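hi support,

uploading two proteins for the ticket. first:
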Amino acid sequence: MEVRSYRDLLVWQRAMDLAEATYILSRNYPRDELFGLTSQSRRAAASIAANIAEGYGRSTKAAYLNFLRIAQGSLKELETHLILAERIGATPAGSVDRLLSDADELGRMLHGLITKLQSHSGR
């Protein structure tokens, strides 16, 4: 499949799926977490896909790689928020397992894309 847009990238599509799942899960967080854990989780989740897209739109491979690394950082931030939400009882035990599994897969995909870009001269 030819990649004509960041929207064609499977890694971006999976990041969007994870962001959507995070938004859905966080709807059930306690109201007193609206400006805390809910907001932070959603921001980190949205940031992953946004940084993949922004990096794709940059004119240099170095800039693209930088944004992919930022996306990796946001992914780790999201994982931490999800684990914390479960630990403090903001979400039931086991409710973040699928999201963490999806995050692991997304992390491997990001790592693979970064490695591929570093080893090839083109995009």
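and the second one:
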Amino acid sequence: MKEQEIALVTGAGQGIGLATVERLLEDGFYIVMVDRSVEPLTGTAKRLLAEGKALEHHALSITDRPAVAALIGALPRLDVLVNNAAVFWDGKFDTVTEDDFRAMYDVNVIGTFVMAQEAIKKMQRGARIINVASRAYLAGYAHAPYVTSKAGTIGLMRGMAMDLAEKGIFVNAVAPGLIETEMFRSLTPERQHELISKQPTKTIGQPEDIANGIAFFADRRTKNITGQIMTLDGGRSMGISLY
């Protein structure tokens, strides 16, 4: 374990987090999987361990600083942190409550801040932090709290990149667009078609697409890049397709 680079991935039980775990395992990392939900984290980790993968898993909330500090403090080193854990729900601006707004911000921004602040205590020069933001940081209908939180995630990334540059720690972000996850599959076929039709590529991204972007930033060979956003949204950030 000590001879391998260690990557900690939050929200690791499914979706983009799981795809990232599997990709970084391929790249030779020892993985620390973190998720607040015992399932599917336990089931996923059990499957990967049965395949002989080098990892451990921990169920905890990223907003619980004592738990986060204890976990990271017990690691022999930490080379990569992937801040993927987040919450999401719809709500038009005039119906969102202050409690809803604070709850989303607390996880998506404060939780990311807590993870990163504890992580750097174990990081050496060349370590990397990757925040998983969203194309939604640009804007989104009925998503005001989510837009705000993801814009905060981007702002936090840039602030960390500036402050941590002198320590030799690189901080970047990926901004996924429409991705085929359980949330997307829960939509009606009509709504799915509508969303895909707005994509310039007329395609939907896969969790593995985002994992590949994260892996680029996580690779120690990727140097002299910090404070940057990699947008992985099928071109949606350019505008709605007109054909």
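thanks. also noticed: The radius of gyration is 17 Å.
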